[in-house]
Amino acid sequence: MEKKPATTADLDALPETKVGEIINGELYVSPLLTPRDSFFAFYVLVELIQFFDKGMRGTGGWLIVRKGEVNIGGDILVPDLLGWRRERAPRLSEPDPFIPTPDWVGEVLTPETEGLDRELKMPLYARAGIPHVWFLKRKSRMLELFQLDAGRYVQRAIPLDSEPVRVEPFEALALDCSYLWTRVG
User: Fold this and answer.
1) Domain containing 105: what range?
2) What is the CATH number of the domain that holds 144?
3) Which end of the chain is least crowded, N or C, by CB within 10 Å?
4) Could you give the CA distance from residue 164 to residue 25 in angstroms, rounded to a whole number?
5) 3 state DSSP class of 87
6) Is 1 domain-assigned?
7) Digit-coded pLDDT (tens) for 4-36
8) How many structural domains does the chain have?
9) Contact (Cβ atoms closer than 8 angstroms) between residue 174 and residue 164
């Protein structure tokens, strides 16, 4: 018997303790981030929002959210972090806003999600033309930056240790994770 493609009803049926995504018609279910990884993602989110989303000090605005849905063809992905340049951002005040493909996504890599993020989601992000992808690795204190160039991602590894770093597309901000490591190690 042929397996039926996964639907949004399958996603809706999942408990709140799981994250569901549909890729190539198949349902992929992942656990929520651990408290440490969740704090890590939240810290990065807050740093970016303070600088870019509220327009406090940054040059150029962004709308940045956590756990948003990205539709690429028939695939439904849920990156840990995602953002749109202000001029392309969805108008969330509208009753049913059009949600364009983001300009940046960030994934917190965990043992449970790393294969899914690298092997299945990355090619979809490239196909959708998402210019910047970050893989954040709390345990190794690394950020892997992927920049889209002629349909393929060029990768660069950046340590997130004790020195502030400037990373595309948010290079106006010196991202300082030193405080973070005193909290989550």
Assistant:
1) 33-184
2) 3.90.1570.10
3) N
4) 41
5) helix
6) no
7) 899 999 999 999 999 999 999 999 999 999 999
8) 1
9) yes
